[in-house]
Amino acid sequence: MTNPSILYRGGVLHCPADPSATALLVRDGRIAWLGADADAPGADRVVELDGALVTPAFVDAHVHATDTGLALSGLDLSAVRSAGELLDAVAGFAAGLPGDAVVLGHGWDDSTWPVPQPPDAGALDRAAGGRRVYLSQASIHSALVSAALLAACPDAAAAAGFDPSGWLRRDAHHVVRAAAFASVTRAQRVDAQRRALGHAASLGIAAVHECGGPEISDEEDFTGLLAISGQGVPEVYGYWGELLGAARARELGAVGAGGDLFADGALGSRTAHVSAAYLDGEPGGCGHGYVSAEQVREHLLDCAAHGLQGGFHAIGDAAIATVLQGFAGAARTLGVDRLRAARHRIEHAEIMSKRLIAGFVEYGIVASMQPAFDRLWGGAGRMYESRLGLDRSLASNPMGAMHGVGVALAFGSDSPVTPLDPWGSVRAAAAHHNPGQRMSERAAFAAHTRGGWRAVHLDAEGVLALGAPATFAVWDTPAGVQRGLPVLQADDPEARGAHDPTPLPVCRATVLRGDVIYQEGSS
């Protein structure tokens, strides 16, 4: 027995193949007809769109669902602008916790503070009344922890990246992170995952790429998330980031052995591996590379042996260069064509050069990028400039240059590093701080929709077309917008940028393969 057919009519469809289309028919999870209202066939049910915009649904190509859900209900520190404000937030949150619960917070960013000096472990102890405190920095590659948590993790003191102040990086951070998140029960994790996916659906996102791995989550968390994929929530495509872990990734149900397989750290914590020293860190400090070219090569060969897509997290230009050297080594064994067919990925790819971009083109690498990074940290007076200098800041996140030479792009948020915000990401890519790196709204939208599907080898997805899966979102758009993508609409040319005040579309409904996974006004 087939599902009831549904006619959606009276809308504005983002359908390049039929720009005048105002209606579509959904039958058995696919688009069975597209065209004008007057020509619409009969259907078991009719949904009146009342002029709403209909587009392919978004794909977020890099998320951490459990962390996102915990951040949505936990201590959000993204708005604090001083050590004092952070301590006040911790004190207020800790006062409402039961028993000896751990204070879990996220999102502080010292680069936005007038005095970029975070509190130490003792001050956190006093603010939290002696509780264990774990506060991840915006990049999630370092954290502030209290003296109580340090005492509970004696192994951290001997690990790389330890600092008695309580601001921990590298291996020491992984030790305390594991201890802090061990306090979260399985039921709380499931609740956090569903909260994150439900929030994603409310933003017109129908699929996410979960980037897990032994250093950022755990196997139970990862497989639990995959188990609820598409069950009234967006679909989840998992990447397991473990070096030479293709067999394990396949066993866990992952589509790839990559994602957050770290070739380096992050710019926020000064652990991204860059070729020229940070300007605001230790003299001569260039961050840290976590893999060698030979390890990259062996990992890609392992992925080929198991028929899996591979990839790496690589932010700094030195880390990306190392990864590309590994690709060159793998190509000598497998051949370039076989590497290209796998569509291996590099996550973030923030500090690039023409030579590095050429490597992406040569090996067919998908660049999984986050436009919000430029919106939040690019341009004059922001974190990239303080870490790298203005010239390197303006050359960072070169989405426009990469798109211009044919690099396949898949956009995401890295949530909770930046919030789930697909339309905001489209706007950010179209309004890069460096005008030379801007993309058209249409190209940026494609990278955040079809690009995400292509990154998981589902090439027929992400379009409104006859026979395609009925995966789309329905939007209320700003007044006066008739057709096109409403992301850069301000009349004032100076306001037409990442901070354009024009309201972005609001999701009315999200449909995944014909099933409504979000409906405005429903619980």
UniProtKB/TrEMBL annotation:
<dbReference type="GO" id="GO:0016810">
    <property type="term" value="F:hydrolase activity, acting on carbon-nitrogen (but not peptide) bonds"/>
</dbReference>
<protein>
    <recommendedName>
        <fullName>Amidohydrolase 3 domain-containing protein</fullName>
    </recommendedName>
</protein>
<feature type="domain" description="Amidohydrolase 3">
    <location>
        <begin position="45"/>
        <end position="518"/>
    </location>
</feature>
<dbReference type="InterPro" id="IPR032466">
    <property type="entry name" value="Metal_Hydrolase"/>
</dbReference>
<dbReference type="InterPro" id="IPR013108">
    <property type="entry name" value="Amidohydro_3"/>
</dbReference>
<dbReference type="Pfam" id="PF07969">
    <property type="entry name" value="Amidohydro_3"/>
</dbReference>
<dbReference type="InterPro" id="IPR011059">
    <property type="entry name" value="Metal-dep_hydrolase_composite"/>
</dbReference>
